[in-house]
């Protein structure tokens, strides 16, 4: 037994190392965020491997650059031998421009909202809600203008393709495929569907600011003539329809069960009798130790929203039943620890 290992009350040996790593989580996030923001990984991918030349290229201080490079090496994102080299992890996910790029996730998970909310987590626990003046679910919140472009690529791309593959046997024989994408963000989930079905038409619902950011994807997929927009709040704006397919990706976790039921009931009236509703969400319910992400994500919702959390599968099944839908099929997503819940209208 080493000096830093003690006996627990049960007699087992316990090292403090895991706890120390948890307490350093804030530092780790800041190190990765700085590496992405400064373009460290792009420099090394381009062949610039010395601290002094990287500092010069970035117009940064040589000492500060060296310290950051060594810290990234300590985290396993770089290797240090004859200069600095990318590890497989960094080369796969942290090179801008590649389809697998995940660096934009720091804008979502480690943006200014996170640094504002988490230092006051204990007080949020006492109150049971966020302490921010404008929760994320507030219509027009500036977070969504950051989220939408940051979620394209390796974040939404694999999931949107997975959904298209799941829905293909159902969608392909249909004479039409009218799609409503609620709180669409990048719009990639509905636009991927539309791109694979010549008779499909996608209606994107979100704030005007977010919808403006979808135009690049619409143009890239050549869907301008088969895309329309609904600007406003999904709880209030007329939904039009009816639609063959309604997609709601990562929206319900911002709201209480009561608000989720309200929205689901609205969506049921906008869906064709033989249509399908797709919910794409983080699902809790399994043991936190085996499926940690939804439970950790719920803490983000506690600090950032009024009543949000990652709801359980049992909760979704009940809410769907109460709002007029069938029991859902459950399928894993790709690219994120999410699941697709696919339901039809009951009766």
TrEMBL record:
One Gene Ontology biological process: methylation
Q: Which residues form the active site?
A: 253
Domain O-methyltransferase C-terminal: residue ranges: 179-325
Keyword Methyltransferase present in the record's keywords: the answer is yes
Give me the segments passing through the membrane.
none
Which superkingdom does the taxonomy of this entry point to? Bacteria
Listed Gene3D superfamilies: Vaccinia Virus protein VP39, Winged helix-like DNA-binding domain superfamily/Winged helix DNA-binding domain
UniProt-recorded name of the protein: Methyltransferase domain-containing protein
């Amino acid at each position: 037994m080493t000096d830093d290992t003690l006996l627990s009350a049960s007699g087992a040996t316990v090292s403090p190392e895991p706890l120390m790593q948890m307490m350093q989580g804030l530092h780790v996030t800041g190190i990765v965020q700085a590496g992405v923001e400064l373009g460290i990984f792009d420099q090394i991918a381009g062949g610039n491997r010395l601290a002094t030349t990287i500092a010069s290229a970035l117009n940064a201080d040589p000492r500060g650059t060296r310290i950051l490079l060594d810290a990234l090496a300590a985290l396993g994102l770089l290797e240090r031998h004859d200069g600095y080299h990318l590890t497989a992890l960094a080369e796969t996910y942290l090179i801008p421009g590649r389809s697998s790029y995940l660096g934009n996730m720091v804008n979502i998970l480690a943006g200014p909202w996170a640094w504002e909310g988490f230092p006051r987590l204990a007080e949020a626990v006492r109150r049971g809600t966020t302490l921010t003046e404008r929760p994320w679910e507030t219509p027009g919140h500036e977070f969504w203008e950051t989220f939408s472009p940051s979620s394209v690529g390796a974040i939404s791309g694999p999931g949107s393709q997975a959904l298209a593959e799941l829905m293909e046997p159902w969608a392909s024989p249909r004479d039409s495929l009218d799609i409503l994408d609620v709180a669409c963000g990048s719009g990639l989930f509905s636009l991927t569907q539309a791109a694979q079905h010549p008779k499909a038409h996608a209606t994107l619902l979100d704030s005007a600011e977010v919808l403006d950011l979808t135009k690049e994807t619409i143009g890239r997929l050549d869907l301008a003539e088969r895309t329309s927009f609904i600007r406003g709040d999904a709880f209030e704006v007329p939904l039009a329809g009816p639609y063959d397919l309604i997609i709601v990706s990562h929206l319900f976790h911002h709201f209480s069960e009561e608000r989720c039921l309200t929205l689901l009931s609205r969506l049921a009236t906008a869906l064709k009798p033989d249509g399908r509703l797709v919910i794409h969400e983080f699902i809790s319910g399994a043991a936190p130790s085996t499926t940690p992400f939804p439970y950790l994500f719920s803490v983000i919702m506690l600090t950032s929203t009024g009543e949000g959390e990652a709801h359980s599968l049992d909760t979704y099944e009940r809410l769907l039943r109460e709002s007029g839908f069938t029991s859902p099929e459950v399928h894993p997503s790709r690219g994120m620890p999410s699941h697709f819940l696919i339901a039809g209208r009951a009766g």
